[in-house]
Design brief:
heterodimer; A: alpha+beta; Tick-borne Encephalitis virus Glycoprotein, domain 1; four-stranded antiparallel β-sheet; 7 helices; B: mainly alpha; Four Helix Bundle (Hemerythrin (Met), subunit A); 2 domains; 0% strand
Chain lengths: 293, 258
């Protein structure tokens, strides 16, 4: 039974990689931007419904029963680890660009075999969480923190990625700016505007390298409210669902820079990713509690 | 003013303590002295790191040499914890030997770098992120040594290897997730698949496979031991190997000593 299970798992992973290669050659790399709202919530509903119905049918279908076992999980983990190592040894091109070679491994995140393998792993993790969730017990808590936490973090992080806006805004001292550009250099008009009062920089005494830099700003929202604050590295400002990070400045002029570059991030799925991350943190700590470690 | 030049003095004193403790534990004598001497060595070496910290003005973690300091400290600590729990007589010799190697590298090839931190590293997340990772590296390092020992000598230590791996994996998880939370705070994305992060994910998954493999096939001892060694090779790639990897050049925010 065990050997049969591992063999089946390996076959399915090889099959997924083969199907992924076919998809890669026919339809091209995975288009994550198509996953933007509301596509991602539909995919999430299908995923959860699929996992639930496979779980309900587990007594009738041997395959579904097997999906919640280690014999299914280990080959999936091996496949994901191998593709991740492959990603680690190949130079990756920045997101939003076409892969450099015909296969597509230089853009691993849009490489179908990679995406399918991880999806399969997530489905299996979801299946094994279901078996524990329907029979709640105290002993299952560390297990669920680890597994369900990973499931939530991966699913929310991946599905939410297309809804995330990550923009750069350049503001001149004394000016107010509401337009920002994305990684593809498209201009977006934002519901918030930043007025830069002063950009300032502290230098290390010995080498004159930047020690810290910050921007005194007023942020206006469309509803008419405004916030005065100083934004510095590691100290972002949160306004109206946006987080504003100190990103850069006019590097040619250094301390004399009269512009400040901000990174503006909106990530509506972030709270769910954080729930997953904190569950995993609790799960990691839970192995130190109790005698069996 | 504590600098790299005074490392040899502290290292020598700590090394004497650890070596005497290792010899005593190997002979199975004087339990109290074993603990006292090891702790004494840890305090001496730890005080060196603390003084480095004060004189640098930031935790000594930015350069390869500085992370090796923590590794040299944590190895005897993990050794002592393992010893107190499972009483392997040889474990302190192992951890001392490995720690000595890293101390020698640091004395013979001290990588002295500027004492300044780039602004993104001036974060309260920085210290826990690196310290937890170094502790995980030390724990899995001991687990790997035990696996190699068992592969050569056929002494059964699998229970201890499993426990060390679980502790190491849990620290890897915490270090990785702290890194994600910090990256979100500093750069706006919690995971950007830069080469270090990619290798951290691969390493983490390798150790996950080990833990699940042990559960699934408890009788498959040799494959598990070999897999433990592969995990550690992956971890070395993540720690310093990527500095030499052509695909990772110039693209990682994690490059040491820049």
């Amino acid at each position: 039974m065990k050997r049969w299970g591992l063999t089946l798992g390996s076959f399915i992973c090889c099959g997924l990689v083969a199907v992924g290669m076919l998809l890669q050659l026919t339809v091209g790399p995975v288009r994550w931007d198509a996953m933007a709202w509301p596509a991602n919530i539909i995919v999430l509903a299908v995923l959860l419904l699929g996992i639930t119905s496979m779980h309900l049918l587990r007594k009738k279908v041997r395959l579904f029963r097997w999906m919640a076992t280690l014999q299914a999980g280990i080959p999936a983990m091996v496949a994901c680890a191998m593709l991740t190592v492959l990603m680690g040894v190949t130079r990756q091109i920045p997101s939003g660009h076409q892969p450099m070679e015909p296969i597509g491994i230089t853009s691993m995140l849009t490489f179908w075999p990679f995406v399918l393998s991880y999806t399969w792993l997530v489905v299996l993790v979801g299946m094994v969480c279901m078996t524990r969730l329907v029979q709640p017990s105290l002993q299952s808590i560390p297990f669920l923190l680890n597994h369900l936490g990973l499931f939530i973090a991966l699913v929310a992080g991946t599905l939410g990625a297309a809804d995330m806006q990550d923009l750069r805004m350049v503001v001149q001292e004394g000016k107010t700016e509401w337009r920002a550009v994305d990684a593809q250099h498209r201009v977006h008009q934002l519901p918030i505007a930043i007025e830069l009062h002063d950009f300032s920089m502290e230098l290390h005494e010995s080498s004159l390298a930047p020690k810290s830099y910050s921007s005194a700003v007023t942020v206006y929202t469309k509803r008419g409210s405004s916030v005065n604050d100083t934004i510095r590295v590691n100290k972002p400002l949160a306004v109206h669902g946006w987080k504003i990070y100190q990103y850069s400045y006019d590097e040619a002029r250094g301390q004399e820079s009269d512009i400040s570059v901000f990174e503006l991030v909106r990530d509506p799925w972030l709270p769910y990713v954080y729930i997953g991350i904190f569950m995993m943190l609790a799960g990691a700590l839970s192995i130190f509690i109790g005698k069996k470690w | 003013m504590v600098t790299w030049n005074t490392l040899w003095l502290f290292a020598l004193l700590a090394w004497i303590c650890w070596t005497v403790a290792a010899v005593l534990s190997l002979r199975g004598k004087r339990q109290k002295a074993v603990y006292l001497l090891t702790i004494c060595g840890l305090l001496i070496f730890g005080s060196y790191i603390a003084m480095m910290w004060i004189s640098l003005g930031h935790p000594p973690m930015r350069t390869m040499g500085e992370t090796r300091l923590w590794y040299s400290l944590f190895l005897p600590l993990v050794g002592l914890i393992t010893y107190s729990r499972w009483h392997y007589r040889w474990i302190l010799s192992f951890s001392t030997l490995l720690s000595t190697v890293f101390i020698c590298i640091n004395i013979l090839k001290p990588e002295i770098h500027s004492k300044e931190l780039m602004p993104a590293l001036q974060s309260p997340w920085f210290a826990p992120h690196v310290i937890i990772y170094m502790f995980a590296y030390a724990t899995t390092g001991v687990a790997t040594l035990m696996a190699l020992w068992q592969l050569c000598r056929k002494q059964d230590q699998l229970a201890a290897i499993d426990n060390l791996t679980r502790v190491g994996l849990s620290f890897l998880t915490i270090g990785m997730l702290f890194g994600a939370l910090w990256a979100k705070e500093a750069w706006g994305t919690y995971w950007s698949w830069d080469p270090k992060e990619t290798w951290a994910a691969a390493t983490w998954m390798c150790y996950l496979i080990y833990v699940h493999l042990r559960k699934s096939r408890p009788d498959a001892v040799t494959p598990a031991l070999l897999w433990q060694v592969i995990c550690f090779m992956c971890l070395q790639m993540c720690w310093w190997g990527i500095n030499y990897l052509p695909s990772a050049q110039g693209t990682s925010v994690h490059t040491y000593g820049g």
